[in-house]
Amino acid sequence: MSLSASSRNLASKKKDAKWVKAVLIGVAVAYLSLVLFIPALNVFYQAFRNGVSPFVSNFTDPAFLNGIWLTIIIALIVVPLNTVFGLCAAWAIARHKFPGRTFVISILDLPFAVSPVVAGLMIVLLYGRNGWLGPFLEAINFRVIFALPGMVLATAFVTLPFVAREVIPVLEEVGTDQEEAAKTLGAKDWQIFWRVTLPNIRWGLLYGVILTNARAMGEFGAVAVVSGNIARKTQTLPLFVEEAYKQYQTQAAFSAALLLACLALVTLVLKEILERKTHIKDVE
Amino acid sequence: MAVSPSIKRTSSRNPLWHIGNISWAWRITWSYLTIMLFLPAAALFLMASTVSPARFWQIATDPVALSTYEVTFVTALVTALINAVFGTLIAWVLVRFDFPLKRIVDAAIDLPFALPTAVAGLTLATVYSQNGWIGSLLAPWGIQIAFTRWGVGIAMLFISLPFVVRAVQPVLQEMEKDIEEAAWSLGATQLQTFWRVILPPLLPALLTGIALGFSRAVGEFGSIVIVAANIPFRDLITSVLVFQRLEQYDYAGATVLGTVLLAISLLVLVGINVIQAWRKRYES
Fold first, then answer.
1. Where are the transmembrane segments (chain A) (predicted)?
2. Cα B50 from chain centre
3. pLDDT band at residue A275 under the 50/70/90 scheme
């Protein structure tokens, strides 16, 4: 093929690239609309379909308020716990090369691979009445299953890997030079952590914390198994959504869903900002 | 671990600090993992071991259980493949083309990670019900989506959508456009260019995305329990069956099915690690 023929060929290809582009964008947007955009918009439409007052009136419903309260309490306990753990695990894994390292990372990933119902089941089998620790817990009169401790454990289980997974690559990328320099200058370990390590990993850490928080507040399956879903006692906001929907209280269900959707929106916006800062864009 | 001279010097000056610091992070990591992960997993295996092998097999291959495996795994596989096609297309559109609101579309891909599954199930059930926005358009053709197996599929499409897009996107971004243009100018059709030039380097990332999406879909509970009718032999998935067994205090039944689910999740996890190891070799 001569050079001019091939460049003509290229030009004609570029011309049909134009309608190909339009078709491809059209298909992508159509698919996203069916699966993602229309369902997402529907949450807002349904919550305010009958105006703002039915939405506001939900805030007098004790079950609804208790759901919000419980969701926040659980997140307030789980997020700091998993942040400290995630930092320790990330530090231990990223700073030491040892045999079986990939295996440890795979173990860390396990909560992502396990169905939340199975996660809840494990906790029931450990702490439940017929569980391993059941008799002991009953003897000291401490309830875990169908109570807050079990819900905290279930939520901590499913959000376990987020912080470590975000921090490990950042720690590896930063390297140890600065820490070693600080050490030779006589800095104490906690000084090195606060002054050198933490500033380096802060965006990755924040990203992990945000993901942990979103999942902690939104977790349904694991919490549903261990909580017993008792209205006004052990019902988080996601459980309230399901319960209200099953009871044909669609308005109440969508009001709670709206709050959770707003949480998701805030998460996405923060994620986007942090991604710009750190250039992380990866699958959890 | 490679100890640099500077560390050696400090640690010889104050060895306890350094050793104490390592074991401190490790101690927290392993204690937390033991309480959160190993003990619950051990409780599950212990409970499973109290079921005799014959009884285990009988529960695991009960006709209802078999039908839930079929619904869960076949639907998850089909939706993972659908998302592989459309996810690649979406990633392609986002990397190669400019169009209005592109940034918002890009950010919105992560919505299924951030949106609680109960909210996803609620809104999908509403949109795809007989009088919902999309469901009402399909109803005249006798197609019912919500509360059927199609609903299970829609929920799985929703929650596993980001995996392929986010796995494929960075690879596409790094791919040089020159190679494609070279293929074009040599007379390759667009289809040939796609099959021979673009797809091969994309394959490892694509497979990772498919496997992650599949494993997420297999474990999904919250959205499906709401959007499906959960009728045995029709649209009952394994996670929901585990939940139902637990509600009936049938711990043996729940444990056996939970163990089956866990074993399959572990297999998929191992598979993902294998693909990623292969990918690293492929890239280097």
1. 21-48, 68-91, 103-128, 140-163, 205-231, 251-270
2. 31
3. confident
pTM of the model: 0.89
Which of A9, A31, A239 minimises the CB distance to B185? A9
Whole-number mean pLDDT of chain B? 88
Which of A117, A151, A196 is most worth mutating to test chain B (most B CB atoms within 10 A of its CB)?
A117
For A196, the token pair is: 């050198």
pLDDT digits over A227-252, tens only?
Answer: 988 888 899 999 999 999 999 999 99
| Residue listed under structure tokens 């163990």 | B259
CA torsion angle B249 B253 B254 B255 (round to 10) = 120
pLDDT at residue number B9: 43
Q: Which pLDDT band, with edges at 50, 70 and 90, does B109 fall under?
A: very high
A219/B161 Cβ within 8 A: no
Q: What is the greatest pairwise CA distance in chain B?
A: 81
What is the nearest CA distance from A74 to chain B, expressed in angstroms?
15
Across the interface, whether the CB atoms of B116 and A21 are under 8 A apart is answered no
Distance of CA B220 to the CA centre of its chain: 9
> What is the C-alpha separation between B205 and A15, in angstroms, rounded?
30
Q: Write the pLDDT tens digit of every residue in B223-274.
A: 999 999 999 999 999 999 999 999 999 999 999 999 999 999 888 888 888 8
Alpha-carbon radius of gyration of chain A: 25
d(CA A213, CA A202): 16
Range B69-283: architecture per CATH:
Orthogonal Bundle (1.10)
- The predicted model gives B206-212 an average pLDDT of 93
Higher pLDDT, B265 or B67: B67
In 3D, which of B246, B258, B216 has the Cα closest to residue B68?
A: B258
Whether domain A60-283 has CATH 1.10.3720.10: the reply is: yes
CA atoms within 13 A on the CB side of B240: 26
Q: In chain A, what are the helix, strand and coil shares in percent, each to the nearest 5?
A: 80, 0, 20
What is the reported pLDDT for B251?
A: 93
Measured in angstroms, the CA of A231 and the nearest CA of chain B are apart by 16
Q: Which of A42, A102, A132 lies closest to B46 in CB terms?
A: A132
Q: CB B262 to CB A98 under 8 A?
A: no
Q: Chain B residue closest to A271 (CA)?
A: B107
H or E element in which residue B90 lies: helix B75-96
Taking alpha carbons only, the member of A23, A28, A268 closest to residue B87 is A28
Helix axes B251-283, B199-219, angle to 10 degrees: 170
Residue B190 half-sphere exposure, CB side, CA atoms within 13 Å? 11
Q: Which chain A residue has the Cα nearest residue B100?
A: A25
**Closest by Cβ to B25, choosing from A92, A118, A217:** A92
